[in-house]
Amino acid sequence: MKYLFKKTVSAGLVFLMACTACLPVSAEIPLGSLMFAAEDTKEVRKQKTEYNRAYSILFSILASSAAYAPEKGIEKMYLSGHGWDFVPHQITDGKTTVHFITAKGCMADGRPVYVISFRGSSDKKDWAADFTTGQVVYGGKTLEESERVAGILPGGTKEKAAVAQAAKEAGTATLPKVHKGFNSYADLSLRMLLDSVSYEFLQQYRGEKDARLLLTGHSLGGAVATIMGQRLIDFGFDPDRLQVITFGAPAVGNEAFKKMYGKRLDLIRVTNTEDPVPLVLQGVLRNYRQFGEEVRFRIPKTFNNMNHFLHLYLDSGLQNYYDALDAAVREGIIQDWPDIRRGGKEQPVMLLYVEGNDGERKNSATNAKSAMKLLERFMLNEYKALFPNYIVIRPPLDPYEALRTQEADYLLVLKFHADTNQNNNNWFLTAEQTLSDKDGNMLASGSASKRTSPLAGNILAALEVLGVQKAEVLQNLPWLKQP
Question: Model-level pTM greater than 0.85?
Answer without folding.
Answer: yes
